[in-house]
Amino acid sequence: MRFPLVNLPVRNRYFFVADLVLLPLAAYASIVIRLESLNLSPFWSGFGIFALLCVGVTLLVFWRLGIYARYWRYASLDELLLLASGVVLADLIVAGIVLLLAASSVSLIVPRSVPVIYALLALVVTAAPRLVARLLGRRSAMRRKAARGMAAASRVLIMGAGSAGAMMVRELRENPQVGMEVVGFVDDDPHKRDVRIHGVPVLGGQEDIPRLVRQYQVQQVIIAMPSVSGKTIRRIVEICERAGVSTKSMPGMYELLDGRVRVSQLRDVQIEDLLRRKPVRTNTAAVEQLLRGKRVLITGGGGSIGSELCRQVLRCEPAELIVLGHGENSVFSIEQELRQHLSTGTRLSTVIADIRFAERLSTVFEHFRPDVVFHAAAHKHVPLMEANPVEAITNNVLGTRNVLQAAMSCGVGHFVMISTDKAVNPTSVMGASKRTAELLVHQAAMASGKPYVAVRFGNVLGSRGSVVLTFKQQIAAGGPVTVTHPEMVRYFMTIPEAVQLVLQAATLGKGGEVFTLDMSEPVKIVDLARDMIELSGLEVGRDIDIVFTGMRPGEKLYEELFIAGENYQRTVHEKIFIAANASNLVPFALDEGIRTLELAAATSDVTLIVRALKALIPSFQHASLGTVDAAESVAAPALPYEPLIARAVGSHD
Asked: Binning pLDDT at 50, 70 and 90, where does residue 644 land?
C-alpha cells in the first residue's frame, strides 16, 4: 500500500517528517533504558528490525486513523486520545510481530519490556510537536488580535465552575476576538474552592462577587449555570447590580438541546432567566420512537408554538414533516429555517391552507396521509376575539372539527391539540372556543378509539401577542408600561419548554385525555413589568412609570388549570398532569351545539354565539350573559339546544 504523503495537508507533512525522525530515536531510547547501557552490541540486529517495525507500523496506523488529517492547531483532548490510541495500537502490532520473529529466529533478540517502554516514549515524541503547534497557534492568534488594534479585553468572572463554565472558558480562549479575559470562577460549592479548571482559579462564592470585582477590576460576570432556578439567577443579578458590574447569561437547559455551550449564545440576562424553573427532563427515546420515520403534520406551523414544534419534531427524523399554515410569510420563514437543518432521511413539505375550509383540508390529508398530527392553529388573543367572536368560532371550533374529521377519515394514529388554561371556567369567547375544541377532540377519541388528546398550558414567553413583547416595546419607547390590574397573575412557560412537554404528553396519551402542564407558581404581571424595566438598566418611577389601565373584556385576574369533574393525577413525568376521565364530560348533545354555533357564526349572531357556548360549557361566565347567568353558571344545567336552534332559524327565515 502506497503511503499518500503528497496528499497530506502542508502542516501535517511536517508532523510526518518529525515522526519519521523521532520514532527511531524513541525505539533506540527504549532499548537503552531497558539495558541501562549505551552499548547495544548484542542487540544491533534486533534493534534494526525493531526500529523499522516501529516506524513503519506507527506511521501506517496514524494514517489509517486520520491523525495526519487533523488540524493540530486547534487540538483538544479528543485529538490527544486519538494519538494515544494510535500509539498503543501500533505498539501491540509491533510487539506481536517481534514475538513471532523471535520464536522463529535466534538472531532477533529484543527484551519483552522494550515495546512497553517504546509506547510511552512514542507518545511523548509524537505529542510534543503537536502540543508546540497548539501553543504557537494560540500565541499567534493573540498577536494578530493585538496587531488589529482591538480594544483591551474586558475582565470577566464566570459564575458556575461546572461543565458549562469549563466549556465557556475554552470557548473564550479559542475566540479571542470576543475580547474577554477570564480572571476566575465563582461557585458556591466549597469543594471547588482554591482549585483550577483549565488553569483558571475558583476564587469564591456568589457573596464574594463585590470583593472580587474590586480586587480584580472585573467589568462583567457571565452566569454559566443553565440548570439553576430563576430565583438563583435573580439573586446573582441583584448582587452584580450592587457591585456595579454588568451580567450576561447562557440559555437555560431547555434551549441547550445539544448540550453545547457557545460564545455566540452569550446574551444579556433576560426575563426568561428570572422565571427559569428546574430543567425539564424529557424521555427523548419515547418521543423519537413516536415520530421517527413517521409522517407528521403540524397545523399553525408558522406560529410561535407551531414553529417550535417543527424544530423539535425535525430533530426526531420523521419520514416527512408537513408544515400547514394560513399565513404565507410565516410558513415561508420557518421553511427556510428548517431546510438548513434538514437530514437526508426527512422530506419537508409546506402547505398554505385555512383550516376553516373542510374540503381543502380533506384534500391535503388525503394527499399526505399523516401518521401524527399536532394541531396548533388557533386564534388566541382574548381581547381581539371578544371583538371578533365569529372568527373565534369559525377558526377555533369549526376549524378544529374540520381537522379532526380529515384526520379520522385518513386514519391518523396520534392527534394532539394545543389548548390553553383560558379554557378552564372561561370568561372569554376565546377561552370558551378552546374548551369546545377540547370537547371535540374527546368526542373524536371515543369515536376512533385512538390516542387523540389535548394539552393545556398557560402563557408562553416570547409568543406573538405575549405581554413580554408588549412590555419590551413600551420600555423601548420610553414608557409608560401598562398593566391592567395590580393583582393580575399568570402562569408562564418558555416556548421550547412547553413544546418539549407537549411532545412528551403525546407519548403518554391513550385517547380522550387532557394533559395539563405543571406551570409552577403563577407570576404577578406587575412584578414581571418591574423586572423587565430593571433588566433594561432603568428604575421604576424615576425612568419609567407603571400605569394601571383596568381589565380588558374577557380577562380574569388569575387563570386556572383544572376543570371541576376532571380527575387529575400526575403522570410518570413529574411536569405533566392527566385527566383520564375528560371524555366523560362531553355533552350528549355536542353535535347539536356545534351546529348552533355554526349557524350563529354564519349569521354573525354574537348573542347566540355566547348563549350556545354557555349551553355547552356551564361554567362559562361572560359579561353579556348578565349577573343572573354569572351567579348561576356553575350550578345551572346546560341550556337546551332545540330552542336555540329554533330561535336562530326563526329569526333568519
From this structure: very low
